[in-house]
Description:
Layout: H1 12-36, H2 49-74, H3 81-84
Amino acid sequence: MSDAKPALFVQQRTYRRRRMADAARMLPILGGILFLIPALWVGTRGISTASVMVYLFVVWAALAGIAGVLSRRLAPEEDDPKDKDTPTAEEEGLG
């Protein structure tokens, strides 16, 4: 039996990609928390419905922008070595 230990470190590209995926998974939780914040303002005087709606729109736009950036960064790249291991439909004889 070999006592080979797995590598402690992964490639920098892989590490960043995993952290981006973690951020994408946390985005709905962050959005839920940010959307619930106006519920804390119910008893506060001086907060108008219009200001709450502006807040919600800004949060929604920011979440959409962040999701767009994350999806671009998580898209597979042309020279990604993992993608070259998977055969295409033409190589499998399906196309």
